[in-house]
Amino acid sequence: MFRKKALRINTYRGYGSENLFRASGRALEDENVDFGSNLSTFKTLRNIYKQLESDEIKNARLTLKLSNGQKFETMTDKEGYYHFATTVDELQTLADQEGWVTYTVSYTKEFTKREISDHNSFESQMLIPSKNAEFGVISDIDDTILHTGVASFFKWRVITNTLFKNYDKRIPIEGVSQFYKKLHLGFNGEPVNPFFYVSNSPWNLYDYLSAFLNKHFFPNGPILLRDFRTPFDKTPKPKLPHKQSEILNLLATYPKLKFILIGDSGEKDADIYTKIALEHPGRILAIYLRDVNHKRKTKRIQRIIDNYNATPILLMESAQEALKHAKKHGYID
Fold it and tell me: Taking a C-beta distance cutoff of 8 angstroms, is the pair 149, 155 a contact?
């Protein structure tokens, strides 16, 4: 007989508030994905296959434990995901200096007969933005901070970059990490301005993208991805585009916090960002769009910019342009 694979829990770094504890992730069979560096093309392709061809553990009872010993139970859905939220008094007292609340997730006793990786203790974090935050930053990932090729013909560069390049071989957009570090510090020089990364990539690539962000020293922040839909998926399609929905959730969660939105000219970032800024006056400080050097798309984005005046907006060819703009408007020192 074939030996059953061990179980694991893929925890996703998330966000909440002073009294709102939220946790999300996915219960899976452990595919032993190797996130080492300098992997061969074959091993990289095998890793991506393992991430996309995931075997979820549905209807699994899980225990969430805060650092003060407080415990909660939740259950995964038919695709292995869990999304938990509850009120916890004085939750902010458990946060570190940058606002991160650490907790663990584990399988309940009914699964102890199965082998479970990491001694059945999977750590995660939830962000509570500091009261001293000057603003928050919501950033796209593909072609905004990571060379992807979303605007390429039939998106062939997306496929090539994702399937055949390990995270350590992927190239960040020049100067963006330094720009984000400046925004994280803000004008007052405190590392408290929160970052949120939003992408249309599937949750299956969470570890891959997280490893890339860590390698290139981007500010820590929740990575908000979406479920991987197949042509045979019978679940209702979301009413709003994923990025728009996530940004609106952040605006609702932090009603007193203003945001800077960062994206690119390759997809619909300009449409979504300007629409949100117009519908929520006073909440968006600025919009930055990286030019992906696609003549037709650049012209379309320029038309949007020419008819928009609700907030400062910049179509930039380099991070240096963004730095100068942010300094001029007082977002950074």
Answer: yes
Residues 58-89: pLDDT tens digits?
Answer: 999 999 999 999 999 999 999 999 999 999 99
* Coil/strand/helix, residue 298: helix
Encoded amino acid at 294, one letter: H
Q: What DSSP character marks residue 172? A: B
pLDDT tens sequence across 15-36: 999 999 999 999 999 876 666 6
Does the structure show a pLDDT above 50 at 160?
A: no
Sign of CA dihedral 182, 186, 187, 188: negative
DSSP string, 106-146: EE-GGGTTS-BGGGG-EEEEEE---TT-S-EEEEE-BTTTB
Report the distance separating Cα 22 and Cα 156, nearest Å. 37
CB-neighbour burial class of residue 245 (10 A; exposed 0-12, middle 13-18, buried 19+): middle
CATH of 136-328, one of 3.30.70.260, 2.40.50.100, 3.40.50.1000, 1.10.260.40: 3.40.50.1000
Residues of CATH 2.60.40.10 domain(s) within the chain? 7-127
Which amino acid, residue 33? Answer: V
The pair of structure tokens assigned to 305 is: 């910019």
pTM here?
0.89
Classify each residue of 295-316 as buried b or exposed e, where b means 16 or more C-beta atoms within 10 Å of its C-beta. eebbeebeebbeebeebbbbbb
- Please, which pLDDT band fits residue 148 given cuts at 50, 70 and 90? confident
Radius of gyration of the chain (CA): 20
CATH of segment(s) 7-127? 2.60.40.10
- Helices and strands (H and E) in the chain: how many: 8, 14
